[in-house]
Structures are given as C-alpha cells and as structure tokens.
Amino acid sequence: MIEPKHNPPQVPRWVAVLVLLACVVGGGYFLYWWAWGRPVSGARPPASARQQQAVPDSTTRPTDRTGRGEGFGRVGRTATPTPGVPRTSGSGIIESRDSVSVRSGDTIMRVYRIDGRDVYSFEYASVFGPTSDFRMAERIRWRALNWPDARRAAGVTDEQLQQLRDLGNAPQVAIPADQRKQLAELFQAWRAADAAARPEAERTLLAKLERAGQEAYGGTMAQRNGWARQVRSILSPEQQASLRLAEPPPQGR
Q1: Whole-angstrom Cα distance, residue 198 to residue 191?
Q2: What is the Cα–Cα distance from 40 to 38, expressed in whole angstroms?
Q3: Which residues make beta-bridge pairs with 94?
Q4: 24 — phi, psi (to 5°)?
Q5: In the chain, which end has fewer C-beta atoms inside a 10 angstrom radius, N or C?
Q6: In angstroms, rounded to a whole number, what is the distance separating the alpha carbons of residues 103 and 59?
C-alpha cells in the first residue's frame, strides 16, 4: 500500500518577514555595540578617575622622580596650619605614619624612615612645563635612535646617529647635592624644635625649599633649551620633518 505524500506545512509569509526583520535589527544593534558601546582598549578614564589615579599611595617608597612632579595631589589636603606660619595654597608640612611631606611652592621634599635612617626624595612640578619645541626635539631624537625604518627614511647617517647618542638624554630638574644637604639639616632642625621654635624653623625650611626648587627649575629650563638646539643642529630640517611625521614600527619589531 502506497503511503500518500504529505506536503510540509507552509510558513506564512508574514512570519518570514518578522524573522528577517529581527535578524536585521539584532545585527544592527550588535554592530552599534561593537563600535560604540564596548570599552575601547587604551581609552582614557574620566577626568575624575584620572585625578584619583594620580594620587600616590601613602606607602610609596622614594624613587628618583626628580622633575616629574608626582604626588602633588596629596600634599596640602589635611595639613594642620602651624600658628604664625603664613603659607600659600598647598604649602606646609604633613606628617603621616611612614613619611613626612614638605611642600613649598612647586617643590616637594618627602622624608621616609627606612631601616632606622631618613631617606629624602625631591620632586618638582609646575604648570609651566617643557616647551613644545623641547618636547618635539626630544621626540625626534628618540625616534632617530629607536625606529630604524624611520631613521633610514629620514636619511640619518651613522655619524649623525652617533652625535645624537653622545648628546645624551635631556637634562632633568634636580636640586644640587649641597642644597639637598642643607634642606636635610633644616628638616632635622624643624623636627627637633620645640613648640615655641617650630614656626620659625618651618618658615626657614619652606623658604629654602622654594628657592632651591625655583633655582633648579630655572637652570634646567635653560639647559633643556640648549639641548633642543643641539638636536636640531645635528639633523637637517628635512630629516626633522620626516622623523616628526614617522609612523611607529609594527608590533613585535
């Protein structure tokens, strides 16, 4: 006996249209999310988050950060004013569990107690940072030394490359050793002073710290400008333009 053929049920046309429309809408939403909704690798966090990240932890140990100015966000927040000591915004002395921060103007001296001795760290920051000309000279030199393809495209010779190496890195803001010693002595005098003598000891320490920072910064800016001129004297204007516009090398090279 032959079984009768059964035709498959016909899907209504309106159902097919709905399924197709759902696919289009879903695909469009996925593309929108991919382009705009997901976190972008390397994206900068909001300004408020960046400001919080810039504040170092109070347990940070001293490192050679002279001239970079880290840590200014914490200084001056919870300082208790010393009677009789006039101060500008943020200036003063803050004592924490494992360190003492002394700020005057744009200069900070941090004193850490490590293995029974005081360790001093000096930092400087200013809204008037390196000039754009200096930053560009620094970038051009770095690319000439570290990007071989860009160096060849710019036509940098072996002699020029050696001159850039011999020039060394750009000068950094640094308080001279003799002034660092004087500041350490003034800090110890402030620490040992009694309540009556502390205001004067603090005034002396803050005044010396600000002067030392300003002198170091001013001297370094002059040295940096001279350093930038030397970079530009080694490379021709055409070579500088080529290095300035160079693309970074592919990853892994």
Answers
A1: 8
A2: 6
A3: 101
A4: -65, -45
A5: N
A6: 18
Enclosing H/E stretch for 102: strand 99-104
* Token pair in block for residue 131: 């000039």
The pair of three-digit structure tokens given for residue 168, joined into one six-digit string: 């060394």
| pLDDT tens-digit readout, 62-76 | 333 333 333 323 333
For 84, the token pair is 């009789």
- Cα gap 122→65, rounded to integer Å: 7
Residue with the two structure tokens 């516009």: 245
Measure Cα distances from 164 to 31, 77, 248 in Å. Answer: 48, 44, 19
Q: What is the pLDDT of residue 20?
A: 81
Give the closest residue to 239 by CA, choosing from 172, 175, 152: 152
Spatial neighbors of 120 by CB under 8 A, at least 6 apart, are 62, 109, 110, 111, 180, 183, 184, 187
Rounded distance between C-alpha atoms, residue 104 and residue 187, angstroms: 13
**pLDDT surpasses 50 at 33:** no
* Three-class SS state of 101: strand
- Residues with Cβ within 8 Å of residue 78, at least 6 apart in sequence: 94
Torsions phi, psi of 222, nearest 5? Answer: -65, -40
Cα–Cα nearest to 107, from 71, 53, 135: 71
User: Residue 73: its pLDDT value, please?
Assistant: 30
